[in-house]
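DM from R.C. (forwarded with permission)

"hey, sorry to bug you on a friday — could you get me a structure for this? deadline for the figure draft is monday and I only need the backbone to look sensible"
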Amino acid sequence: AGIQDLNIMGDGSVGTYFEWYGATSGTCFFFNGLQRARFIGFRVRNRSGATATSRGIFISRASGSGTQTVGLTFIGVEVGDSGLGFDRGIQIGDSANSRAGSEMTFVGCGFYSNTTGVYLDDSNTLDINFYQLLLGQNGTGIRGNAGSSVNVYGGSASGQTVADFWFDAGGAVGINGYRSENADRFFIGGFSTIGQCGVVLAGCNVAPVANADGIGVVLNGAFTATIQGCKLQCEIACGAHAASGVVGASLTLLNNGIADTVPFQGGWAGNSINRLSYAVLGCVRLTGADVVARFDDEIGAGDASNNRVAAWKRTATGDQGFFNATP
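My reply, with the result:
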């Protein structure tokens, strides 16, 4: 506990394996209060016989509360394998005991065949960055049950049966330059009525999703979201909570390709977009991977019937001026 500057280096994820043969409720590695540690070049696999409640790596502390595990770096580490995944590949933080882990970096890491690849827990689990993240055949790739300031820079995902990314917590999330194929959903944001969450999806390439409804991006609750420069061969669905005292939500769509007849849909999970302000600029409609039309540029607000009510609009024929729309 509380060790600093620990280094574990393997011979690569094909050459070095750590395998868990213990209880199906067990944890292969428990990093207890580590600081400034580095883990390089190995794979962790589950040989217990079932995912159950197993964890490949658990980053927390055995006692105390608050942020007690900081500054960990993972390079070329992979957790899970075909038929050998965990319930949670890596869990950072423990909200049940108010213990968090922060300031962590993952470079070229992969998570495969886990129920959840990376599970972020506790509201003080902050500043987690992934570079060239690989996700394959998990239920959910990254699940933000709590915590924030999570950024992903590059990488690819294939075959997540729930979602590549799913965040329920307030804070800030950025997914940048990411490619996704055959996911049930690409991104789910189910944010609380009291915790605003800033979301940026930038330069992402999302293939058609496996879900029959075609919806790849879900934004629900109290959020401020910007989606820019993405090729989305899927649809976007929104819901904005109308609870008393909740300001609402905002959505900005800039220079995207979207595979739908509208830039976004309202009414997700029974929540109308009557507290959603929006801007749609420079977006085009896709059929498959092909551009077939452009969406009108418009700025406005949603209503209780899930209609977009434009305060300003520019169509293909030019500026249509300002309207007396009431948000």
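R.C.: lifesaver. The chain has no helices and 32 strands.
me: no worries. The radius of gyration is 21 Å.
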